[in-house]
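Whiteboard transcription, Tuesday session. T.W. wrote the structure tokens on the left side:
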């Protein structure tokens, strides 16, 4: 068995690169779904009081959200060891598009919310209740938490 330069490709003798890549891709998706839906399914069962959880539900929700990242790291570690994991994680720091697009991506949800509020007000509905100032001040911390821990990066 030889390891190629790609962190998720291992070439066994008798297998072509494409066969191995498809196998790893299928394994990645299956594993990511299993991790995510196992965690979230347990939370759903506990919410309907069908089971009791030995851990807080928020921890399982967080772990489920990290299912794709955990599976990518597991496959990278299996296929390429520490170098494979390092190669995968360094891709998070690569800027592949102009920084303006990152600003647009971060501001787009806020613009969507403001447009929705404006259209609702124009239709004659009362303004939505605004959260207290303390919650507004927590938005940057919550954003960092969601970006770093609440999603698959």
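and on the right, the sequence the group agreed on:
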């Amino acid at each position: 068995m030889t390891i190629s330069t790609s962190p998720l490709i291992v070439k066994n003798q008798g297998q072509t690169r494409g066969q191995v890549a498809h196998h790893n891709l299928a394994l990645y998706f299956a594993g990511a779904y299993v991790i995510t839906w196992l965690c979230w399914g347990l939370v759903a069962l506990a919410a309907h009081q069908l089971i009791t959880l030995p851990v807080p539900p928020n921890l399982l929700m967080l772990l489920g959200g990290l299912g794709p990242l955990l599976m990518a790291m597991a496959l990278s570690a299996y296929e390429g060891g520490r170098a494979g994991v390092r190669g995968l994680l360094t891709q998070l720091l690569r800027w592949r598009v102009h920084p303006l697009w990152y600003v647009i991506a971060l501001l787009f949800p806020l613009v969507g919310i403001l447009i929705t509020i404006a259209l609702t007000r124009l239709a004659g509905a009362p303004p939505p209740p605004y959260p207290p100032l303390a919650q507004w001040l927590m938005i940057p911390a919550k954003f960092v938490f969601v970006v770093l821990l609440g999603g698959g990066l």
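Someone added at the bottom: The radius of gyration is 21 Å.
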